[in-house]
Amino acid sequence: MSKRLVILGGGESGVGTAILGVKKGFEVFVSDYGKIKEKYKKVLLHHEIEWEEEKHTASKILSAAIVMKSPGIPDSAPIVLKLREVGVKVLSEIEFASRYTTALTIGITGSNGKTTTATLAYYMLKQAGLNVALGGNIGKSYAEQVSEDTYENFVLELSSFQLDGIEKFAPHIAVLMNLSPDHLDRYEDSYEKYIASKFRIVMNQTEKDYFIYDADDAEIVKWLSKHPLKSQLLPFSLKNEQQKGAFIKNEQIIITTDNTNLTMPIATIEIQGKHNQKNAMAATTVAKLLKIRKATIRECLESFQGVEHRLEKVLKINNVMYINDSKATNVNATFYALDSMQKPTVWIVGGVDKGNDYSELYSKVNENVKAIICLGIDNSKIIEAFGNLVDVMVEAQSMDEAVKAAYRLSQRGDTVLLSPACASFDLFENYEDRGRQFKNAVRHL
After folding, report:
1. Can you list the domains of the chain with their CATH numbers?
2. Helix, strand, or coil here: 53?
3. Cβ atoms of residues 172 and 104 within 8 Å
4. pLDDT tens-digit profile of 51-91?
């Protein structure tokens, strides 16, 4: 059988898979329809891996035994349709890499909160002395870390796109943080298809595995009522007591697994806000399943600072706090951000709309927002949605312009919040680039 591995996309997951492929004896070819970054070209050259950019040469791709498609490439891309037509297997990096490791795996997905939860779970495991790596949709690619063959545990943040390309991948602990409409442009505008994609995380689990989920999320509960799972269910909730799993009572988080309890006062958790209470419950349930000491878990919750670009306090200038929430790339994430604002807020919003319904933000905008700065190439939908709710609305074409406008519009005691509710690709490379430009512009005021 041919051992030709073709990789579509020369980014983090593509290059990581290429390294693993070479180590496993595949003849590897990387093809990117766009440009490959210099840092990745260097890695490919170092490993003597053949690659091409700004094109897909059909003859070199269709001869593959197996193809790894980077998550950013839609299933509707012409080259992917051709591969399916000729019967070549197209997998995600997660599926390919999982075949070459026996490590215990924790998979974390959800529309929001998955980065914070994965980072917090990883932090707890690391502090407890476990041999653990963090990967997936965050940091260094999972495949490259599998190729190093040194880790006994993986915490993976998983996007729906990564889960779309799995066949046999089965995390021992799966976590679903929440569901809200996102990326519907990739799912034929069907919320049901997007939900089904998220639930692929549990499709190969057995009775020995665990599923941690938000019991307050109506869509998750509805799906579970129609699709019974084999795995052991551990819900978390802010509203209702749970026999197994996690809940809040008398300002304490209470977590029960294997008939043992852990309690922790909410006030001592470093990351604040209701959404972060959920993130903390999910990560702590993971840590408890892995028998991490209660004292270690408590210390981690008291010291964990959160992740960059997620409600990150940047600076206070003239008694105005500037907050970077660039990672809020959908409406639900921005809802949490606006919900946690205690002061009059100048809100910077906009970018590439993914079929957003802004109506769920109306009440929060009414309560907390005094001015809106639209930051995108096309702001018409945002202007239409919020034009009647605030007195001041400004358009900006660059981050610098947006931050200067926010500075002019804010007064002592206000907050300036970047929480775009949209993807970043119209004016920025990605949400990290957007967040860093915001922080840079604030520091130069």
Report:
1. 4-91 (3.40.50.720), 95-303 (3.40.1190.10), 312-443 (3.90.190.20)
2. strand
3. yes
4. 999 999 999 999 999 999 998 898 889 999 999 999 999 99
